[in-house]
Amino acid sequence: MNFQDILFPYIKENVKEYLQTHWEEEECQQDVNLLRKQAEDDSHLDGAVPIPAASGNGADDLQQTIQAVVDNVCWQMSLDRKTTALKQLQGHMWKAAFTAGRMKAEFFEDVVPAVRKWREAGMKVYIYSSGSVEAQKLLFGHSTEGNILELVDGHFDTKIGHKVESESYRKIANSIGCSTNNILFLTDVTLEASAAEEAAVHVAVVVRPGNAGLTDDEKAYYSLISSFSELCLPSST
């Protein structure tokens, strides 16, 4: 499931309705207050969208405040910002949507059978994503295959480091408790593949519909797969 294609558009399309529905709730007010503080910090930036405090003068004033929050969220997302305030609201919105069954994570059909097979062979499976650990758990907990969190031994996000930095992969290996050359990293981004290789991690580049194209040199250099079923991994036992 792709954060860019499904999760983020959901925020833009539903943030106004979400705020109107949950406005009186303490969690929502905490989110708005954090966004307002962020907006104050951003006031010097070009195009920054302020969020005025609601004066309490009726429904029109409330709608103006909600619209200001919506505009601020869309502005931050258009710049691909990752502020704590924005991520907190997004996380709460995704949690509400998944819990209510409005969203389900959809995986390529080869993924879950392959992961089950790897685990049966004694291997461990970890997720490393630019999406937060909380968002990862929502996806794996609410998929079209049901709750498949049991198939994942651990989760990592950019708190351990960015995916294009080789040191991140060393930290992950250290956290897992194994050497980097005992790890196979699957990615569709060659900059990540290069960083992982630099840390002596094994890499396979996954070619899927809609992914960025690869250069001829990249195709010749990297091990390419179009399905997890193509991987022949040694048993760990």
TrEMBL record:
Mainly localized where? cytoplasm
Q: Which residues form a coiled coil?
A: none
Compartment list: Cytoplasm; Nucleus
Q: How does it assemble?
A: Monomer.
The organism named in the record is Rhinolophus ferrumequinum
Q: What is this protein called?
A: Enolase-phosphatase E1
Question: Would the keyword Plastid turn up in this protein's UniProt record?
Answer: no
EC number of the protein: 3.1.3.77
Family, similarity comment: Belongs to the HAD-like hydrolase superfamily. MasA/MtnC family.
A GO molecular function annotation here is: magnesium ion binding
Q: What does this protein do?
A: Bifunctional enzyme that catalyzes the enolization of 2,3-diketo-5-methylthiopentyl-1-phosphate (DK-MTP-1-P) into the intermediate 2-hydroxy-3-keto-5-methylthiopentenyl-1-phosphate (HK-MTPenyl-1-P), which is then dephosphorylated to form the acireductone 1,2-dihydroxy-3-keto-5-methylthiopentene (DHK-MTPene).
